[in-house]
Amino acid sequence: MLKNIKGDKVIWIVVILLSIISIVCVYTSVTALATRYKGGNAMYYLVKHTLIIGLGFLLMYMVHKVKYTYFSRISQIAVWIAAPLLLYTLLKGISAGEANRWIGIPGIGLTFQTSDFAKLALIAYVARILSVKQDVIKDFKTAFLPLIIPVGTICALILPANFSTAALLFITCMILMFIGKVNLKYMIMVLGGCILLVTIFGFVILKYPDSIKRGRTWKARIENFRSGDSQENFQADQAKIAIGTSGVFFGKGPGHSDQRNFLPQASSDFIFAILIEEWGVLAGAFVLFLYMVLLFRGVRIASNTTKSFGAYLAIGLTFSLVFQAMINMAVAVNLFPVTGQPLPLVSMGGTSIWFTSIAIGMILSVSRETESETTGAIKNLRNEKGDQLVAA
Fold it and tell me: Which domain range does residue 52 map to?
């Protein structure tokens, strides 16, 4: 099967392994969800999740066949679409947990998080600007402003409903700008301003939580994480129990998790804790290893490509996916406050899996083109040597 696909074969293998892990873990962790909504029919979620992953593979395959330079042109339009979509979501989106994060797709009954689309659009757009502005990359007006204005706008529109996603996207873009040799002085100024704003924002949340729509939610998460109050930090404590009652080499066995009946997001945000509980600590380490392999291969693709846009695109999307995975796993072991970030390609989801698949398809597209260029160069070299031998 791997002979019929292009791009980095190791990334394909990582994606396949994570998808298999996802199907197994989702099926064994949806017991409470199935009992509540489907009369105990966990098979419904298994079939649905498998179909979603299958469509994700199809999207990944289709996207990886597209020449990655087209994403540069598409990003110019996509970033302008993303901003009004995010604004519409804030004002008229579907609410869940005091946050408007989703909008419905007319005619098919599906919803999607506009922030997932905005992430892809913004990272591709930043990669484009960095590549076309390299000759004047140190200039404030010509290079820095065209970068920081869309980054600040998109992240500001995401922030009210999803602080962690906005912060993750902003950090990814800043890393891209650092790699792209943007003037460090301007970046430090922006980071200093952001730290000041976050400090003021945090003070307002802690002192006047009702002044902001989700102020009480954010305040509770910060205070619960800081104090470690077991009664108020319910989700994190249940995740720690799941991990603490597992073994190093063997867990309780697939389908034998106890905490899946207590964790509200056992199949999505806290699926990493359920995985460790059922399969053991080494299984969790193996999943972490897979994401590290994805990071290594993404960096390798970026370093091997001859076009700067491809390098920035690959590294930006790779960092975004791996950072998200690290945050999810850190939350599961109580290193970070609860954020609501799913584990890419593992957590149960719908359109989030599809956007992740599209992102990986874009990385594979860069890899495919690099392979084609390398193969073409080798063929040309062989032809030149052959002509020299004939001439001799």
Answer: 2-387
Q: Are 297 and 10 in contact (CB under 8 A)?
A: yes
The type of residue at 138 is K
Alpha-helix residue ranges (DSSP H) falling in 208-280:
215-227, 234-244, 271-279
Determine the Cα–Cα distance for residues 260 and 285; give it in Å rounded to an integer. 20
pLDDT, residue 306, reads 86
Count of the separate structural domains present in the chain: 1
Q: Tell me, yes or no, whether 182 lies in a domain.
A: yes
Q: What is the mean pLDDT of residues 162-166?
A: 87
Position 117 in a domain: yes
Tens of pLDDT along 202-240?
Answer: 777 777 776 676 666 666 666 666 665 555 567 778 888
pLDDT at 180 over 90: yes
Alpha-carbon distance 71 to 65, whole Å?
Answer: 12
Which residues are within 8 A (CB) of 328 and not within 5 positions of it... i.e. 6 or more apart?
Answer: 269, 272, 339, 341, 342, 343, 344, 347
pLDDT, tens only, 58-73:
999 999 999 999 999 9
d(Cα 225, Cα 297) in Å, to the nearest integer? Answer: 34
Mean pLDDT of 85-106: 77
Whole-number Å distance between alpha carbons of 190 and 168: 16
**Domain-located, residue 392:** no
Close Cβ partners of 143 (under 8 Å, ≥ 6 residues apart): 129, 133, 136, 137, 182, 183
Q: With respect to residue 10, please indicate whether it lies within any of the assigned structural domains.
A: yes
